[in-house]
Amino acid sequence: MTTPAIPIQAVGEPPRVIVPDTQTVFAARARRFEQLADGHALGDWLLFLAAITQAQHDALQTLPALSLPDAATLAQARAHNMPPLPAQSWPRDAVWRDVLKSICQQIEPTAPAVARAELERLRTLSGDELEALANRVLHTELYGDDAALLPYVGAALQVLWTGAAARLGDQVAALDVPGVCPCCGFLPVASVVRRAGDVSNLRYLHCALCNIEWNLVRVKCATCDSTAGIGYRTLESTDGTVLPVPPKAVRAETCESCKSYLKIVYQEHGGVDPVADDLATLSLDILVDEAGYARSGPNLLLMPG
Fold first, then answer.
1. What is the mean pLDDT of residues 159-174?
2. Which of 49, 148, 207, 221 has CB 3.0 to 4.6 Å from 226, enough for a Cys bridge?
3. Is residue 161 included in any domain, yes or no?
C-alpha cells in the first residue's frame, strides 16, 4: 500500500493533519480489499467492495473543480476551530450524483444479483430523493427504508469530500475537539498507527468521509478524550485456523469511561487500510459489541445489520 503524501511543516515536527493523496487513497484500498478477499469467508463481498473502491478512484480522477470556501471563510473557520467543509452544512456540489451514477455503471456488470437490484432501485430515484439519502448518510442515520442503498451513496459522497479535502491541502488545521475530523467534522472510521518517517509510531484518526487523518496521542479515547480504562481486544484463533488479518494488525480500542470502541490498525504488520481492514474483521465488532461496547464511528461502505 502506498503511503499518502505528508505535507511538510517545521523541521522535525510531525504533521497534525495528513491530507489524502488522490492518486493512491482509493486505488490502494481497492488492492487491499482484493488481498483480504483471498481465502476469506466474506471473500465475494470484499471483492465487490474492491470494485466499488476502484470505481471511486476512477471517479475521483475526473472529478471537476469544486467550489471551495474562500480565504475569508477559511480564516473564520480556523479562528473559531471549525471544520471548513462541514458534512451537515457545506453546500455540496450536485456533481456527487454524477459520481454516484458513474460508480453504479462501473460496478453493475460484475455486481451480484442482490446488488444489481439495489442499483436498479437507485436509478428510479429523483434528485430530491437522492439528496434525502445523502442527508441520512451525512447525519449517520444509516437505518430504515432503503438502507441498502446508503453504502453506494456514501461511496459517492466520499469521492466528493475527498476531492475537496485534497484541494484544500494544508489549509486544514487541527481542531481542539479530538474526536471529529478537522476538515468535515465527520467521525473517524478507525485509527492508524503509522510506520514511516516523522510519523512512525504515531496514531492518526482516519475520517470515514473525506479520508483526512489527524493526530491523536495513543492510549486515549477518541470519543470522550479519557486516558483511563483504555483496553484492547483482538481476534484469536482457538483451533489453529489462519485468520484473514493478523491479530496484531487490527485491534479494538475500548473505553471503560464511555463504553465505546474504535478499531486501530498497525502499518508495521503489513499494508493495512483503515476502511478495508475494518470490514474484513467484522467478527471482532461482534465480539466487542457482545462485551457491551458501542462502536463510535461508522464505515460508510457497510450497511448496519
1. 94
2. 221
3. yes
pTM strictly above 0.85: yes
CB atoms within 10 A of CB 240: 5
Q: By the 8 A CB rule, do 96 and 157 touch?
A: yes
The per-residue pLDDT of the chain, averaged, comes to 92
Cell numbers found for residue 303? 450497511
The band of 10, judged by pLDDT with boundaries at 50, 70 and 90, is: very low
- Its domain, for residue 231, covers 188-295
Angle between helices 113-123 and 150-168 (to 10 degrees): 70
Residues near 144 by beta carbon (within 8 Å), at least 6 away in sequence: 136
Do 196 and 163 fall within a single domain?
no
In this structure, the strands spanning 213-215 and 294-295 are unpaired
* Same domain for 21 and 162: yes
| Residue 105 per-residue DSSP state | H
- Of 207, 192, 202, 305, whose CA–CA distance to 253 is shortest? 192
Phi–psi pair at 252, nearest 5 degrees: -100, 120
